[in-house]
Amino acid sequence: MREMIFTNKPILTVCLLCMFAAGAVAAEDKPVLKAGHPSLKEWILPVAPAPVDNAPNAARVDLGWHLFFDPRLSGEGNMSCSTCHHPGLGWSDGLPTAKGVKSMVLARATPTIINSAFNTIMMWDGRKKDLEDQAMGPMEANVEMNMDTVKLFKWLNESPGYRKMFESAYPGEGINAATLSKGMATFERTVIMNDSPFDKWLAGDAKAMTAQQVRGFDIFLDAGKGNCAACHSAPNFTDNGFHNIGLASWGNPNPDMGRYAQKPIARMKGAFKTPELRGITLTAPYFHDGSVKTLKDAINHYAKGGEVTTNIDPNMQPLKLSEQDKDDLVAFLNALTGTTPPITIPTLPQ
């Protein structure tokens, strides 16, 4: 018996060491909720990425800035990109769902473009791969800006001001869908919000967030409480994925199928892209159908586990949240709003 114990002692030691190591790893994986702690670094926004063939420079930003605010890019000459993505409304429109040509009410909310530079897929249903790919979409859509693109590029090529700006931004590439899209995307990549109280707290300012907001962040991360980070993940508070969160509108007779229209697999029925959260206090109402007016209402929806559970995402489970927990979450979400670079309206070229 003594020999047997002696023989297995190394094995026992190894097992204990493995258990200790596993515990150490788990402890390291859980972030320390102290301002500036290294375990929080995954939440720090990096420099906005850009394609190799569309590296940002002043001429490209200037071109995109003018195009973004120019209503002449629409069929009736009365809508620009900024009509729906208004800087004063969180780069959205403040409406439950967007309005298009002739004020037609559309089915989906206008997403903000704040920090869209970090997204790896675009639109509520993911039908566009990047900012360049999505730039022409609203102009071409007959329910949105309803622009005849043949007419558009004829006019742009006849404009002395735009000819000069396009040549400065993209020498020798001409005025076409590719250069227009690249200019617009370059401007949109400047709409960055990285100075919120949360961002300052990440950088080490212990006074940037209140104790309640830190508690809210803890609930946000805790898989057994809010479980919010399962989808609203670091660093831009989105997994760039698609989820059916059980909205009441999913129970309509002919509901919006969301991602399923682009990727027809069963789990994508009624699934929509996870929106980023910085600046969220500026972009009410919430969800793709604009059905929720306040952040507290949105949290109540998640706490309930959704309204219509058919084909609902597995992460949508009822949450055990007290009213204090909910208030703490709201407080944290308020800490995600900072500022974007100041914007002026350009004088448009003739």
Write down the CATH topology of the largest domain.
Cytochrome Bc1 Complex, Chain D, domain 2
Major β-sheet strand ordering: 1-2
The number of distinct β-strands equals 2
Spell out the CATH superfamily of the largest domain: Cytochrome c-like domain
In terms of DSSP E residues, the strand content is under 5%
CATH domain class of the largest domain: Mainly Alpha
How many helices does DSSP assign? 12
Q: Spans with pLDDT under 50 lasting ≥5 residues?
A: 1-28
Q: Could you tell me the radius of gyration in angstroms?
A: 24 Å
State mean pLDDT (0 to 100 scale).
93
Secondary-structure content class: mainly alpha
Helix content: 25-40%
Specify the biggest β-sheet: 2 strands, antiparallel
The CATH architecture classification of the largest domain is: Orthogonal Bundle
Principal-axes shape call: globular
Structural domain count: 2
Q: What is the H/E string?
A: HHHHHHHHHHEEHH
Terminal CA distance reads 96 Å
From the structure above, extract its key features.
mainly alpha; Cytochrome Bc1 Complex, Chain D, domain 2; two-stranded antiparallel sheet; 12 helices; 2 strands; 35% helix; globular; disordered N terminus
In short:
With 350 residues, this protein is mainly α. The chain is built from twelve helices and two strands. The chain has two domains: 38-45 and 194-334, Orthogonal Bundle (Cytochrome Bc1 Complex, Chain D, domain 2); 52-188, Cytochrome c-like domain (Cytochrome Bc1 Complex, Chain D, domain 2), CATH 1.10.760.
